[in-house]
Amino acid sequence: MAFVLNAIPIVSPRPLLRRAVVLVFVIAANPIGHSGPSASVETTVGVTLPSSEFNVLSEPFSLNRGQPLTNHLRTQLAERAASYKTFLETFACTESVEKKSTPAKHFDYLLSVSATAPPSVEEIRFKKDSRVSARLSLPSAASWTLLFSDTYQPYFVYRYLGISVEGSHLVHKILFRGTLALDHGTDIREWEGLIAVDIHTLAPVYVEAAPRLYMEHARIELKKRRRSLRTTVGVVETADRAGGEPIHTFRPLKSIRMRRSPKIRTLAVRFTPMSSGMSLPSRMVEQEHRISELGSSTKDVEIKQYTGYRFFATRALVLRATAAGHEVD
């Protein structure tokens, strides 16, 4: 079934031949040049991704990979996470935010950790002496330091992949998957991915994460896309006949799915070690992955840099120094 939406005449170099570009909606999901009842599509559509299936994350989560965390390592990681609850409130730094085609913005940046269980990390930004609000759609970069907190552990499944070399670090590589359904995206329990922690300090070295069950959702959305309406762009050629009705011929050029291909966003956080044996974020990159039957494309959405860490003896001194209007370049 097809409906011609629009026709735009195009001057043809050949006399007696007129052309028009049209859009045609095709309900059946058959490729151009193939015919057949739409019912046949329902029996051939699959939910698997292309043969060159991408992983998005370098180490996708799977219960079949690695081993459960030992109780000893769980306890050590929980103790390290507990030390971050107060440490995250003893510094201020400069956050630089870069977006495509937009000049970088710089803020005074500090954190507030709630007393709830599990704790949440609130980002506080100042420009000059004014507080700045920001969109909340991702966990803060520093919130991953609490991933193994004793109050967070019941909400996660962990798989231990072993020890690896990462730059100058020997690290434990651990897969994780939260148990909360994706809501606003600001809670780390809505995410899954990979974390690497230094084997000596147990401080984070890097994190890669995506929304929980992202590959399963991508497969479902790709299946819906394959069954969706399709727009066909083509040319209608009209030949005039003397004393008779003109002859119209439609020549298809391109077929476009009406439903957009699924999109997955991911984040990657790098940490820099501090002299105290702790580590704090140095860079966070948010990426968007667009998926189609032919593969995927990736683009950076936002890049955040954290520099100029300034430490204070108490939380009150952090707030006082920031409220004083520390100049940001």
Task: Write a brief caption for the model.
It contains four helices and 15 strands. The chain has 329 residues and is mainly beta. The protein has an eleven-stranded antiparallel beta sheet with strand order 6-5-4-3-15-14-13-10-9-8-7.
Label this structure with key terms.
single chain, 329 residues, mainly beta, outer membrane lipoprotein receptor (LolB), chain A, 2 domains, 11-stranded antiparallel β-sheet, 4-stranded antiparallel β-sheet, 44% strand, disordered N terminus
Describe the secondary structure blueprint for this structure.
Elements: E1 8-10, E2 17-26, H1 39-44, H2 71-87, E3 91-99, E4 102-113, E5 121-127, E6 130-132, E7 156-166, E8 169-178, E9 191-198, E10 204-211, H3 214-226, E11 230-239, E12 247-257, E13 263-273, E14 279-292, E15 295-311, H4 315-323
Antiparallel strand pairs: 1-2, 2-11, 3-4, 3-15, 4-5, 5-6, 7-8, 8-9, 9-10, 10-13, 11-12, 13-14, 14-15
As a whole number of angstroms, the C-alpha radius of gyration is: 27 Å
Beta percentage is 35-45%
- Helices and strands, in order, run as EEHHEEEEEEEEHEEEEEH
Which term fits the overall shape?
A: elongated
Residue-averaged pLDDT: 78
Specify the CATH architecture of the largest domain: Clam
Q: What helical percentage do the residues reach?
A: 10-25%
The domain count comes to 2
Taking pLDDT < 50 over at least 5 consecutive residues as the criterion, the unreliable ranges are 1-17, 20-53
Structure annotation, total helices: 4
Distance between the termini: 61 Å
Biggest sheet record: 11 strands, antiparallel
